[in-house]
Amino acid sequence: MQQAGAASRIKDIAQLQAARDNQLIGYGLVVGLQGTGDGLRNSPFTEQSLRAMLQNLGISTEGGASRANNVAAVIVTANLPPFASIGSRIDVTVSSLGDATSLRGGTLVMTSLSGADGQIYAVAQGSVIVSGIQAEGDAATLQQGIATAGRLPGGAIIEREIPASFKGVGGLVYQLRNPDFTTAVGMADVINAYAEARYDGPIAEARDSTTVAVRKPERADLARLTAELENLIVETDSPARVVVNERTGTIVIGNDVRVSKVAVSHGTLTVQINETPTVVQPSPFSRGVTAVEPLTDITAGVDGGQVAIIDGPDLRTLVAGLNSIGVKPDGIIAILQGIKSAGALHAELVLQ
After folding, report:
1. What's the rounded Cα separation, in Å, for the pair 338 and 259?
2. Cα dist. 81→59, 89, 161, 172, 300 in Å?
3. Res. 162: pLDDT tops 70
4. Mean pLDDT for the chain?
5. Above 70 in pLDDT, residue 311?
C-alpha cells in the first residue's frame, strides 16, 4: 500500500462550497500626500474626480485649473468573507492608478466597494499603510518594496450582507483545495467512521476528485456538525510532481517522485577570450606612426563531465544522486528535463 503524504485536518485541506469569498472593487482618492501624488495634467481622471468630490461637499472650483499634487487616484479591492454581517470590518488594498510616486502618509477618502452585480457591499476609508520606501537624489535612487500600493487593515465597513441560509440546506459539500481521488475517498471514509459511532450510519460520499458530499443527520445541528467534522484528521495524498523555475533556479521535488536507474553526465563548455593589445612604436627618424596591434587569446575547456548513476527509489536517494554530480541548480534543471525526456522520471515536470 502506498504511503500517504501527510495527516491534516479537514478544515486545512477542504472548504465548504457555500462558504466562499466575494471580490469587491471600487475607485477612490488618496489625499494628504507630500507632493508624491498624481500629476493632474498627466492624469486627467484624478482632477475630474477631485472636482466632483469637492462639488459634492458644496465647494465650487469655479472652473479653475488645479495644481495640487498631493492627491492620487487609486483602485480599492477587498474580499468579502462568507457569512459577513453588517457593521463588521474587512481589510482593503489600494493601488495607484495614475503616475503617483508614493502613497505613504495618505488617507483614503470614503470609497464605495461594489460586487460583480453592481451593488454596494462595503465602504472604505482611513489611513493607508505602505511598506515600501523610495528615496532619490540628483544622482542616485533607492527603492525598496512597492510604495504605490498599500493596505488598510479593517479599513472597510460592511453595509450589505450576501443572502445565505446555512442551516437551511440539507447537507454539506466540501471542495478539496488540491483535487485527488485518494484524498477524497479517504476523507469520506474518515467522516463515515466518525458518523457510524456518533449517528449510527454513514453520511459522506466522494463524488469526484474534488467534491465530498455530507448528508445532514436528522438529529444533528448543521453548525455543530461542521465544527465536529472540520477537526477530523485525514491522510492526504498528491500526485508525484517536480516543479522547476528556470528564472530563479528553484527546484521543488515531491516526496513520491521516483527515477529509474539512469546514467547522467553533465559538462559545461567554458570559453574565455583575453584581449591584450600591444602598442607598436616606429623606428627612430622613420616616417612611421605609433599603432596598436591587437592580440587575442581564446581558450576553451569543459568543466565537470563525470558520469553518475542516479537511482531514486525515494526522495533522499534522488537528491543525493543529483548532488553527487556537483552541478548548480540550473544544471540540475537541465538534468531533470533530460531524465524526463528519457522516460526515467516518473513524475509530472512543471516548468514555471
Report:
1. 12
2. 37, 10, 10, 18, 61
3. yes
4. 81
5. no
The rounded Cα 280 to chain-centroid distance in angstroms is 61
For the entire predicted model, the pTM comes to 0.66
- Rounded CA separation 64/239 (Å): 65
Written as one string, the DSSP assignment of 30-56 is EE--SS-S--TTT-HHHHHHHHHHHHH
Torsion of CA 245, 330, 320, 352, to 10 degrees: 10
Which set of grid coordinates corresponds to residue 252? 521543488
For 181, half-sphere exposure in the C-beta direction (CA atoms, 13 angstrom radius) is: 1
Residues in the chain: 352
Coil vs helix vs strand at 77: strand
Question: In terms of Cα–Cα distance, which of 221, 227, 237 is closest to 189?
Answer: 237
Q: How far apart are CA 138 and CA 331, in angstroms?
A: 42
Q: Which of these ranges, 86-90, 106-110, 188-192, 276-280, has the smallest mean pLDDT?
A: 276-280
Confidence of residue 350 (pLDDT cuts 50, 70, 90): confident
Contact 33, 100 (CB under 8 A): yes
User: What is the crossing angle of helices 181-199 and 222-229, to 10°?
Assistant: 120
3-state secondary structure 159-173: CCCCCCCHHHCCEEE
Q: In the numeric block, which cell numbers belong to residue 169?
A: 440546506
Q: Which residue has the cell 468579502?
A: 80
DSSP 267-290: EEEEEEEEE--EEEPPPTTSS---
Identify the pLDDT of residue 2: 45
Who wins on pLDDT, 121 or 84? 121
The position carrying cell 495644481 is 67
Whole-angstrom Cα distance, residue 329 to residue 212? 40
Q: At 244, which helix (H) or strand (E)?
A: strand 241-245
Given its phi and psi angles, is residue 324 left (phi above 0), alpha (psi -120 to 50 degrees) or beta? alpha
Element (H, E) at 335: helix 329-341
Residue-level pLDDT at 299: 62
